[in-house]
Amino acid sequence: MKIVVGLTGASGMPYALALLKILRKKGVKVTLISSNTGRRVAAEELDGGAASLERLAGEVLENCDMGAWPASGSNDFDGMIVIPCTTSTLSKIAYGIGDTLITRTAAVALKERRKLVLVPRETPLSLPMIEAMRAATLAGAVVLPAMPGFYHRPKEVSELVDFVAERCASALGVKVKEGVRWKAKKGSTQNP
Ligand SMILES: Cc1cc2nc3c(=O)[nH]c(=O)nc-3n(C[C@H](O)[C@H](O)[C@H](O)COP(=O)(O)O)c2cc1C
Q1: pLDDT over 90, % of the chain
Q2: Is 139 inside a domain boundary?
Q3: Per-residue pLDDT reduced to its tens digit, 41-74
Q4: What's the predicted TM-score (pTM) here?
Q5: What is the rounded CA–CA span in Å between residue 3 and residue 161?
Q6: Does the residue 140 lie in any domain?
Q7: Taking residues 31-39, what's their average pLDDT?
Q8: To 5 degrees, how large is the angle CA 132–CA 134–CA 138?
């Protein structure tokens, strides 16, 4: 399996790190593309900064390299995820702007009907962002906000991070056996 991971400048780099670890464990071939702000936020949020993410990828491409292989629909990949995904990048993808390697690869994924998962992290949400999420969904992307559940009674932050990373892996079609799933308790009338 071949997955392109786009890293943009939203908070949430631990989610990207946890997902890259899952993909590596599953033997997925990963091509990583970081925006400049993505690198900057990674430096703030992770020990080792963007390098700690890049060392988990099989290949690292520059976001300004519009001639790199994922920019063309002739070159195959199974799916793409943008994690974390900024409002800016989400809006560009939703409205077909392909001015960087990340946004162009997302446009390729949509036109070729390949999997595209967008993991926005912003709060509160403005109407333009909600409209962009709607447009991206109508275009075929899966919008998977970084919103962990609490029904597995997490004790550590890493359990919340893994919750989101495992959902991302599943959305890409990577089976995660140990993934947290809500199970009804006997006699429970509560919905998840
Ligand atoms: C420390 C820091 C944290 C940020 N967090 C967010 C965020 O959580 N969500 C978001 O949409 N933008 C966030 N931004 C703003 C984006 O990085 C900015 O809009 C940038 O131009 C997006 O470019 P990119 O999508 O190419 O990475 C943050 C910026 C910085 C410097």
Answers
A1: 90
A2: yes
A3: 999 999 999 999 999 999 999 999 999 999 999 9
A4: 0.94
A5: 20
A6: yes
A7: 98
A8: 115
In a domain, residue 185? The reply is: no
Q: State whether the beta carbon of 9 lies less than 6 angstroms from ligand 1.
A: yes
CATH number of the domain enclosing 49: 3.40.50.1950
Structural domain including 25 reads 2-171
Residue 89 Cα to ligand 1 middle (Å): 9
Using alpha carbons, list the distances in angstroms from residue 68 to 56, 112, 113.
Answer: 20, 17, 20
3-state percent helix, strand, coil for the chain, nearest multiple of 5 = 40, 15, 45
14, part of any domain: yes
* Index of the ligand 1 atom closest to the CA of residue 90: 25
The reply to whether ligand 1 has any atom less than 6 angstroms from the CB of 122 is: yes
pLDDT in tens, 92-112: 999 999 999 999 999 999 999
Q: How far apart are CA 14 and CA 46, in angstroms?
A: 7
Number of domains in the chain: 1
